[in-house]
Amino acid sequence: MIRARHLPILLLAFNLLGQSVSEVEITVEPHHRLALENQYVRVFKVDVPPHESTLMHRHRHDYVFVTLGASEVENDVEGKPPATLKLQDGETRFTPGNFAHIARNLASTPFRNVTIEFMQDERARSSTSPKWDEERGLNVLTGGTQEILFVKDGARVSEIELRPGGVVPKHHHAGPHLVVAISDLDLRSDVEGKPALSAQLKSGDIKWIAGGYTHTLINIGKGQAKFVTLEFH
Questions:
Q1: Which residue has the higher pLDDT, 196 or 6?
Q2: DSSP code of 14?
Q3: Predicted pLDDT of residue 9
Q4: Which of 123, 157, 186 is the last residue of a domain?
Q5: What is the phi/psi pair of residue 126, to 5°?
Q6: How far apart are alpha carbons 133 and 101 in whole angstroms?
Q7: Which residues 6+ apart lie within 8 Å of 180 measured at CB?
Q8: pLDDT exceeds 70 at position 95
Q9: Mind giving me the DSSP string for 78-101?
């Protein structure tokens, strides 16, 4: 026989059991669309409509996400109290992996981002990775800026802004890098020893570029160009 004083405790236990949420892999979470996968990264384009939520999904790797458009999101990490994030357009954050969560879009606009998982995160943490010459800093360019945001898991993450006609001066890419367009981009790449190349990307587009070349980058568009790069040794 259940005594009356035990009833509230039993009801609470049943409620907690009823609230348990099954977990899915990020690859089958319907708001995450796989856009690129290689030995360095796995890239998802994320789109959560206004006032909707993702399923509880697991991040098994460290990752960076680049926000596309300002938004407000509730981050419900398994086993932790909910946290509200107010994110600005182009805001780029690093998050250690090995957790599961639900992202709830609190805004009246879609929550969009590009999520980049580091596939070699464990190896990068356990080995002596090559060092970058700069790991933080702001470089003033001709008609723009390059801000080195951070270095994580051996990858250097930078945000670049170029006004029309702005130039990233001649520089060398020894390893590959990923470009994430925050704004629409119309760029020209003057590659040393080769014909010039042009690239048009829409906001949210990504481009993986192999290393081993030297070039100058120019914004030939009519608007400001803003993008994030992730460079790998």
A1: 196
A2: H
A3: 46
A4: 123
A5: -95, -5
A6: 35
A7: 66, 114, 116, 204, 205, 206, 227, 228, 229, 230
A8: yes
A9: TTS--EEEEE-TT-EEEE--SEEE
Say how far apart CA 204 and CA 179 lie, in whole Å: 10
Same domain flag for 209 and 152? yes
Q: Which of 68, 96, 123 is the last residue of a domain?
A: 123
Give the global pTM.
Answer: 0.89
Q: Tell me, what's the pLDDT at 144?
A: 98
Predicted pLDDT of residue 111: 98
Rounded distance between C-alpha atoms, residue 122 and residue 153, angstroms: 8
Query: What's the token pair of residue 169?
Result: 């001066």
Contact in structure between 99 and 78 (CB atoms under 8 Å): yes
Domain boundaries, position 213: 128-231
Residue 18, helix vs strand vs coil: helix
> How many domains would you assign to the chain?
2
Between 3 and 66, name the one with better pLDDT: 66
Q: pLDDT by residue (tens digit) across 47-85?
A: 999 999 999 999 999 999 999 999 999 999 999 999 999
Q: Quick check: 88 and 70 in contact, CB under 8 A?
A: yes
Q: How far apart are CA 54 and CA 101, in angstroms?
A: 9
Q: Are the C-beta atoms of 73 and 103 separated by less than 8 Å?
A: yes
**Mean of the per-residue pLDDT values of the chain:** 92
Question: Which of 151, 25, 176, 175 lies closest to 94 in space, CA to CA?
Answer: 151
For residue 85, which amino acid is it? L
CATH of the domain at 111: 2.60.120.10
pLDDT band of 3, cuts 50, 70, 90: low
- For the chain, how big is the Rg over CA atoms in Å? 21
